[in-house]
Amino acid sequence: MSNVGMRTLFHLALSPQSRLVRLVLGEKRMEAHLRAEPIWDRREEFLAINPAGEVPVLVEDDGTTIAGATPIAEYLEEVCPEPPLLHGDPAERAEIRRLVAWFDRKFDREVTELLVGEKVLKRFLGIGEPSSEAIRAGHANILIHLDYIGWLAERRAWLAGDRFSLADVAAATHLSCVDYLGDVPWERNAEAKDWYARVKSRPSFRPLLADHVSGLRPAKHYADLDF
Amino acid sequence: MSNVGMRTLFHLALSPQSRLVRLVLGEKRMEAHLRAEPIWDRREEFLAINPAGEVPVLVEDDGTTIAGATPIAEYLEEVCPEPPLLHGDPAERAEIRRLVAWFDRKFDREVTELLVGEKVLKRFLGIGEPSSEAIRAGHANILIHLDYIGWLAERRAWLAGDRFSLADVAAATHLSCVDYLGDVPWERNAEAKDWYARVKSRPSFRPLLADHVSGLRPAKHYADLDF
Q1: Which of A7, A50, A98 to mutate to test the interface with B (most CBs of B within 10 A)?
Q2: Percentage, residues of chain B above pLDDT 90
């Protein structure tokens, strides 16, 4: 590794799981060298680090390696508890983790994979054209998810309760990838839009808004805080 | 709820995620009233408890509700730390969590969904016949996963290190559901088989081996500790 003495994050710009780790690092003001990993190349060196062949992977300067968004987030919370992103008593932490799992699994499967996966990842993987059926399903499913976010945001200051938490990070990073493609119908739910505007304006979010994937221009309003 | 003063776990017998929670409860000697939830009926009362409509869901006697296998496992570890299933320093805990995520996501997608999902869940959901293509893929994928388990078990006492952990629980519960169908080719990897025999003989595993899904007889060797 060329960056001795520095934490390295193997990531991809439009991977919500990678973005989740970048946001956690940003919130905790921890630095890391970002290294884009073209997972479709299945580099042997990278597979030796993470046999799952997926990003994100965090490598500490002592060689400690942590793979997967949730394991990395839990790890960072343990080594750097302030500011907390998994706060409260066990029941409050469980509610945060429930919502993280909701976005990491359900939103991922019902929206992100069908839109970002079809339109972006499939191209890099070279596994054919986007399926218009999948994209249609993704567009339909996102409406339900926006309404659920709006429902939560109407009842709570942040998605899991009174404080900004890993639940907001998970939700916002998935939405931000879909938003890069211009596929979030913000007019659908004013509460969800207002919540996203609040996350988007956090300093930790700024680097995500500066992302540019080669050959794929972000939607016009993507980096606009007043969208 | 009829069982006042008692923890309730909404579950399904062949859901590996539900089994994970049952094993964690068993290891920690915590009691819970098990309630089979036919998620395909989408009962309104259940959707009010968990809008994702999925099992497992744990309801404490004070009404605290926790949804999702990993959130429940993390919660149980916090309220009942002994015996620990997420032990060690942050890096060791990260390795346990990496493997839990491996089975919860990768094994689930590449094996469990293609075998248990196609053969069992599809029938209950009434969404058509099992896809023979999916089942073929599941049979091919499980070989790679057995080899990975064997590779880990050859190098470590348990999958994540020196001690039995949530990683062993996650791996064994997925395998146990596939094994109910008789679809684990144990002859493939002796180390993986030996590791599974050790998990299978734990007292916490016994209730899982007694499971019988109506209309679906378990494979002959399913409950056999000397398979």
Answers
A1: A98
A2: 90
